[in-house]
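Support case: flavin-adenine dinucleotide complex. Customer-provided input:
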Amino acid sequence: MAKFELRLIEVINETHDTKTFRFSLENARMDLLPGHFIMINKMLDGKLVRRAYSISSSPLEKRFIDLTIKRVENGVFSNYMFDNAQAGDIFGIDGPYGKFVYKDSDDDVLLLGAGCGAAPLRAILKYILEKKLDINVILLHSCRTPDDLLFRDELLKLEKENKNFRYAATLTRVKGDEWKGCIGRISREMVEENVKNKDNTLFFVSGHVKFGNAMMEVLDELGVDKGKVKEEVF
Ligand SMILES: Cc1cc2nc3c(=O)[nH]c(=O)nc-3n(C[C@H](O)[C@H](O)[C@H](O)COP(=O)(O)OP(=O)(O)OC[C@H]3O[C@@H](n4cnc5c(N)ncnc54)[C@H](O)[C@@H]3O)c2cc1C
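Agent response - structure generated as follows:
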């Protein structure tokens, strides 16, 4: 396991409760695969606080890594990052870790995410598109409200620029006619519609535990081989 001291170089506002923290890799060489997570630590009030975060940037990016962190009510580390972290601050980081990784293959890819679960999916997506892999990739993203649509502008831009990428968001809490897209959770029908051939598709499921369980049930019902599915829940 490698340990690094990384400098925070930029804080990017994503949504009302989510920010992306960009750390310089100027003095570090990390051997990353898309989907990896790292452990980050900082002394807070005399205690070493250490948390896991997925890397949301592409591993082809050698200048920095991005962590996309959602503010958790009463959460120690996420609130510290949200309210106090500034460019120039130094953090201890170790890793990379995890089995939720994409490795080049001829299979198409279906990314199923809820909320901040889109973080590692963004890394996988960007890697596939930047490497110009000759496969189709679809991202279905479930969020609560229009204000929670993480990475929305970037994903729409990537969809416009890449014929092999399709993005659809579905919202679970919508008022009136504020949203013209899909409504409700990611359903079995939605997954089925987006899979051409389940035997030639890799599935990446990322989000909270309930979402992970629901998606695993759907994939099971559709007869997807468990060997084709990877899950990250937090
Ligand atoms: C592999 C992996 C990848 C992850 N990737 C991401 C990511 O990309 N983005 C992201 O935002 N998160 C990610 N997480 C989650 C992240 O690690 C943290 O768990 C999250 O940010 C909350 O940390 P915190 O310190 O803010 O909250 P904590 O202080 O750990 O608290 C978490 C919750 O527990 C409650 N709590 C804490 N202590 C108590 C107590 N004594 N009694 C009752 N309730 C309590 C808090 O109120 C809060 O609701 C990932 C987790 C894993 C395991």
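The pocket of flavin-adenine dinucleotide is lined by residues 37, 51-54, 68-70, 72-79, 116, 119, 232, 234 (CB under 6 Å).

Case will auto-close in a few days if no follow-up is received.
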